[in-house]
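Ticket #4471: structure output looks truncated?

Reporter: J.K.
Steps to reproduce: submitted the chain below (458 residues) through the standard prediction queue, then opened the result file.
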Amino acid sequence: MSHIGKITFCGGTGSVTGANFLFEVAGKKLLIDCGLEQGREIANDSNWAPFPYDVADIDMLFITHAHVDHIGRIPKLMHEGFKGKIYSTKPTKELSLPMITDTAGILGNNRKIGDKVDIEGMYSDDNIKRAFIHWSGLDYHETLNISDELVVSFKNAGHILGSAMVEFIYRGKKVLFTGDLGNSPSPILPDTEPIKDADYLIMESVYGDRNHESKEDRKKMLQRIIEDNYKRKGTLMIPTFSLERSQELLFELNDLVENKKIPIMPIFFDSPLAIRLTEVFKRYKDYLNENAKKVMIHDKYIFDFPGLHATLRSEESKLIKTAPDPKIIIAGSGMSSGGRIVHHERHYLPHPNNTILLIGYQAIGTPGRQIVEGAKRVRITGEEVEVRAHIENISGYSGHKDMDGLLEFVEQMQDKVKKIFVVMGEPKSALFLVQGIKDYLGLNAYAPKEGDSVIIDF
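Returned output as attached by the reporter:
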């Protein structure tokens, strides 16, 4: 048997989304992640092209975490003949079912996509069900022997609940796929696990060209923005991602409310998916950090506090308009490209007393990106909306490491790592990080293009 491996970058290059990597080693064909490519639309047209490999030949799929840009094309993979095994951590498996089901519903209701491809066939209940029959959950550090010489395990990435780096060991050499790396320290999750001995590294670069505010500064900024909105008697909108950002924000608000650091006002948690996902967090307390566990000893409801209203039904969501100001609305989606937040934005963005606070990565072409870049008008649900509301941005609530954090992560393996492949970032971010790794650490790094293949010598 040849002692070389091959990695093909089938997605997740040149953009943040669409992670999909093929690793061929020890006679096996292994996929790492199978995500949707997203931008201006919930799903780019490129998602519906055939996969650049024979799906039936794939032996296993390893999932780093439950965000849609890492799991969103799994039903399509099933539809095209995948019969292998799927592996992730246990929380990732449990979070992935509502995430994929929600995505299937959104895609199924999108006429623009439905006119081009058979979404109902691809994202059928049967395809989703079969994926989870094939899917096994592992603990962090639990080893899976793929062959006599090839072993895989999950390391804690600290990005979202259950997020993992996938570590392959073949003939004593380590190949590490980072998935997304967490912006440690997190209010609720353990820090990203240090890895010191990877030989080959495939790493994300979402914030490869810039740094976040400090954790202390971001909380002060949040407090100040809430107080300013309260004084103006306005509505504060916070578009947020249903998974992790929503839960971290609720955790921070819980502290601000219970310690009387912000005035009491109605806070609407208007995201049915986020509400369902929050229940999973409560079942996986052991995956939270020590601080969050301690809080839960005396505060059973760390995602619930006075003034918080969870609005599951659409009728309840519509009634938010009638609630007096000042108030806060937390709703998906995080880039304002769908979800309930778009209806609130259409209603509240034109009024100067109101505020929109953007706290996560905003992809090129999304309304969120246009708003943060100062657009005076944005198209939301097919309608031109004037932007007169105050615009605030706190990147410190991102779930991704910033430039310094990424360089520090790589620095730990400086004495061992032979080559670094920088992926999952816009070209500017990826290339900036590549240069930083070369300049500051003197290591061999480059940003592959989609379809590139590299040979790894074991």
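Triage note (M.O.): checked the attachment and the full token line is present. The longest helix spans residues 90-108.
Status: closed, working as intended.
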